[in-house]
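The passage that follows is intended for readers who have already worked through the single-chain material. We present the inputs for a multi-component assembly, then the predicted structure in tokenized form, and finally a short commentary. You are encouraged to pause after the input and sketch how you expect the pieces to fit together before reading on.
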Amino acid sequence: MGVSARVFIARDAGALAVGADDVAVALARAASRRGVALDITRTGSRGLYWLEPLLEVVTPAGRVAYGPVAPEDVEALVDAGIFDGGQHPLRLGLTEEIPWLKRQIRLTFARCGVIDPLSLDDYRAHGGYRALERALSLGTEAIIEEVVQSGLRGRGGAGFPTGIKWRTVSQTSGPQKYIVCNADEGDSGTFADRMLIEGDPFVLIEGITIAGIAVGATKGYVYIRSEYPHAVATLAAALAAARREGLLGRGVAGSAHAFDLELRVGAGAYVCGEETSLLDSLEGKRGIVRAKPPLPAHKGLFGCPTVINNVLSLASVPSILGHGAAAYRELGHGRSRGTMPIQLAGNVKYGGLFETAFGITLGELVDRVGGGTASGRPVRAVQVGGPLGAYFPRALFDTPFDYEAFAARDGLIGHGGIVVFDDSVDMAKQARFAMEFCALESCGKCTPCRIGSTRGVETLERIINGDNAEPNIALIEDLCHTMKFGSLCALGGFTPYPVMSALTYFPEDFRARPRRLVAAE
Amino acid sequence: MMPVYETWSAERTAEIIAQYVDQPGALLPILHGVQAAFGCIPEPAVPILADALNLSRAEVHGVVTFYHDFRREPPGRHVLKLCRAEACQAAGCDALAERAQAKLGVGLGDTTADERVTLRPTYCLGLCAVAPSAMFDDRVIGRLDAKRLDALLEETWA
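Having made your guess, compare it with the prediction:
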């Protein structure tokens, strides 16, 4: 017959977790039984996770999507003629026309879910390595100026201007300089780093290489958490491919610049997402937070000048250099320029990655983009920015997604994760969890974090058991004040955000709890 | 896939050390290598590592105990990690964790007496849009529910 077809199925961990491999196997079998020569390309995820496993079929009109596909749907799908884009209840139309995707501004994630993540040819065919080419022609000063002008700020959460960091390192002399990429994405509700590394690793490698050339670093490290084995495997393979093609190593892309990049795997410590703790971990030590100054830009890894940036900051650089700083800066709101890959998670109907310009309101993200809760119950609270982020009630849903706007309301955007909770949530228990997590993950260097978190757990436990709520709430407020202003890093310093926001906006969950007798042990 | 661990040997430890020792900050890569081989960081490995890296035993012990990943005992034949972080909490992981503990008769972090399975809490697998999530040996699992959990626990007999 000679019939052939081409399909795309994600191999991203999020897609694998809901059965993408089984769908691929079932599809290959169904095609072979019908004599169809089927070419299956495994990609990253488009980030529309409620539709995963998503199957995309190449048609003359473009890619047609079907999803969410279960292995048992495959026979019926093939019978419906999906290889020609045939009708079926799971048919979603052209992928690019799915409103959830079409509404986004995908710069950093432009290729994620589109290309074969490990094909350099694919990457180049979709604009890859053009930014490096431009960077090499611009020269170091001009690269840094362009990043400064773009307004790009640290996407890990702190929001420090990326270009200023680069300039500091470039102006600091040292026998060796380093670029360190922080891929220790430990915040619950965030998965953008994982998705990008699994779906488009070369954009990260390109961004890090440009950073190296800009500041005069010849060596870089990517520190990925061990909870991400798929990302580790994909990046390792991508690094090997980049080295083979001369894109890393002695003369990067035929230039006079040397730059090599090494992958290091974390070991399950949340605090290592904090930049100085990460540096200690890379040096082979316990991940203990360092006092600043000295800044890592002056004395970072092994005491040398170091740029330490989040995955998303570095992966935004190729798009900025490729399209120019002005185009990036035009997008955004206030002092938050460009786009932010926002992640919708938890009890949410349409969960996934939504990259858009800063300025969209929290309510629009939760209700319109996210579609409310998956359980169908009312949204009661959303936690923005990971375990150190504040819980926002509906009353604050007019907050625009912007570093300063969230800070003004005692919250933070962090790494862009939004976790949705329905009305069954017990906010006093969430507050206790915030303290428990801080106690579990504290590096132990400073007292407010190390001791304060444990005292916080005990005190919240008393409140939950209805034991003297008022004086214990006063104690929690005092403790949070001490932790916020007395801790060395964001772990102890920001744990008060979820605790105090829960207490402020959901007081009914803390007060007037029935007294529960706790048996003496 | 179930991992198969080697029995402890100083020679094998020396081989692993030799593989990474020239890298700057080699201790973490070495510890990952040792644990991949033996399923844990065996106590006799600590002085060997300290000697190879010119560190004190206390420094190596400090690193081993600082990181949640490094264990002093090998795990059971299967490892079930349940995500316990906020996104999974919002999607109902508490009830699943209770169910798993009740069915296995062990707490989070413990191994069943027959060494069939180790149950571990984890704080975020990055599968927050398909929560609740878990990892069973090297397989990632999203949209976990009671039925799926029971099926996984059944698999631990294999």
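Commentary: DSSP finds 21 helices and 16 strands in chain A. Chain A has four domains: 3-102, 120-330, 332-422, 427-509. How closely did your sketch match?
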